[in-house]
Write a structure and sequence with these properties.
mainly alpha
Length: 74
């Protein structure tokens, strides 16, 4: 191996994975939701955060809409 390399002749190129980078966010989730995904993740052998991301990505791909039914007046 050379002690030094001449990198001045290298051509730069865009990172092919740059568009797939994830954004770090902080979310407050119910304990039962976290436990549910942790259990599923353990069965699947993947990190639970990746499983949540896959689930949300599936919702995005299928254009799923949440249905919220608020309790009637108190």
């Amino acid at each position: 191996m050379k002690a030094e390399y001449d990198l001045s002749k290298l051509k730069s190129r865009k990172n092919p994975y740059a568009s797939k980078l994830k954004k770090s966010v902080t979310m407050r989730l119910s304990q039962d939701v976290v436990e549910y995904f942790k259990g599923m993740a353990e069965e699947a052998g993947v990190p639970y955060q990746s499983l949540i991301n896959l689930y949300l990505r599936d919702c995005l791909a299928k254009s799923r809409k949440v249905q919220i039914n608020w309790p009637q007046g108190a």
